[in-house]
């Protein structure tokens, strides 16, 4: 009998329930496991960094909109959340603007937050508590603390600069209470930075943006009781983000505006006069941070937020500057923070748009990004691995910032435990849209770009790329044109690769050196956009290609290695649906699956053919983004829907269960599975998630509705799992 859509809703398992996967109870397998992620993380952006005064291995970093504060105890190799208790307004920004550490008790730190004031920890970041008495205002912007500074000789004394016009405040009791310290400052000032002279802590400098629209530097010589202008010679009217005082002289101070030119000023008379100190600084930079060597103050470092370089170093008191960023991707690293380890000044930490970096040789070279432990935040379009070495996983990204090629690809060497950027040689594209790994050699992989823009020197533009060294570098193959949406490698002869492009299917037999179009490229006298490919694992001359919905057939088949193609679309949904995935059963190559995403008003779903594509049956009407077969158990299938649900079938698609614990509110794009079938990976809008499959656990009752017109054989509704005693399944007519 046929099941119409309105009747499917009346099929019940012991009680009335909708027959949709998302309403199904979580399986016993899901109860025993859950999706988890370890990245990849961009570290965007490590905007604030502070280092322990006695141990250069301990540092803290603040990331905007990312769980606020993180801590490392191993020199940046790993980071753990260290911001529990820092609160933000509901629905508001979650920026931690500034961090300061008590130099006499480094377990005590203070954080200045957007719209909620100051927070304090006394246990090295394990817990935080509000420390804003006297500081908070009804205006959320006035509650935003942009700058903090601490008296190096009396750590009970702190200064806070607010962003919304409340000016500058002072605490003399370790942030228990705050009072205004605005005498002499313009009204409604926004304070961007505060610097205390290390050798004379009653001397302070504050950089602010006044209500009359002008940037200002002010000086106090009485610990903030009064202030006077200290601007003469600062010709740049942009806000000063960086302020630093020479540790040996309170009269020598540096000021770095956040835009425009000159980019840096120096005063040797306590701010009475300033002169530009820009020799060697290239381009137009947004200067964010200044760090001065604690015992050799003629050595200074700059973090440049934009321009041609990321970090600069001077060894002559800012008379001249040289780039200090070897090992950091430029020009788009957008450095925001630089910090010197007080106990070992050769150790530096840098915060950039690419995350955290560390130098152990006073800025000569850098290593990183050191983002392990930062929250996963990169959209992963494609995930792929090789059966020969499944611990090596490739993750092709949607380059969310449109920066360089740096984040186009990530590689994990430990099954997703840690990730490192591996995009050297790939284009700065809108995404890696196809990815395939040589089944016999995990060091060899292909990545297809879908980008029609070129963003500067070194960007090779769209096409198909290959690595032979595990992602350390990529080079463009002979297929340099077209958008490469799909890839398939012949497992018997990995030198033979098929590429689905916006101009049909191309084939190489020499590992990508040369390519030739197959006949599908001009089947209808015009271009055919191919979005999915699958090879018969027992006969590599048999290929399935899924095309855009604008053509006469959604699926085409070739049995002669692409020389000829025939449409195989009987029973598939009519145009315009979007075919996303094809998969061939490795144990029965006559069994083929096709996954369609919903397109406009036409439903998608999973389709199955048991006659090599001659006819198809629709198994469901879900929104399918990707579909895979368990290589160890071909009756087990997985498909990812667009909205945070992965479905699983253990009976060849007759019934489905959901398991999405840990995937809440995530877009899902792609799936991969290891050769044992014990671990499944999904590429999401926030990193790669993995799931360890417990193949011994029984599934809970779960039914995914058959499509309209599907025949329930022997008048039975199939379901997986166990049911409570007395449960029944009813199909109600009418």
Question: Would you kindly provide a written description of the structure presented here, covering whatever features stand out?
Answer:
By secondary structure, the chain is an all-beta fold. The chain has two helices and 57 strands. A hairpin with a 7-residue loop joins strand 3 and strand 4 (59-63). Residues 1-32, 452-460, 699-703 and 705-734 have low confidence and may be disordered.
Tell me, briefly, the overall form. elongated
Number of strands: 57
Determine the oligomeric state from the structure.
single chain
Q: First CA to last CA: what distance?
A: 13 Å
Give the count of helical stretches.
2
Which stretches of 5+ consecutive residues score pLDDT under 50?
Answer: 1-32, 452-460, 699-703, 705-734
SS strand fraction: 25-35%
| Spatial sequence of strands, sheet with the most strands | 2-56-55-54
- What is the gyration radius calculated from CA atoms? 30 Å
- Largest sheet at a glance? 4 strands, antiparallel
Q: Give the % helix.
A: under 10%
Features:
single chain, 734 residues, mainly beta, 4-stranded antiparallel beta sheet, 1% helix, elongated, disordered N terminus
Element layout with pairings:
Blueprint (H helix, E strand, L loop, with lengths): L4 H4 L3 E2 L14 H5 L3 E2 L10 E4 L7 E5 L4 E5 L7 E2 L14 E6 L7 E5 L3 E5 L7 E2 L14 E6 L7 E5 L5 E4 L7 E2 L9 E7 L7 E6 L5 E6 L7 E2 L10 E6 L7 E5 L7 E3 L7 E2 L10 E6 L7 E5 L6 E4 L7 E2 L13 E4 L7 E5 L2 E5 L20 E6 L7 E5 L11 E4 L7 E2 L10 E6 L7 E5 L14 E4 L7 E2 L7 E6 L7 E5 L2 E5 L7 E2 L12 E7 L2 E9 L7 E4 L7 E2 L10 E7 L7 E6 L7 E5 L7 E2 L5 E6 L7 E5 L4 E4 L7 E2 L9 E6 L5 E6 L2 E6 L36 E2 L4
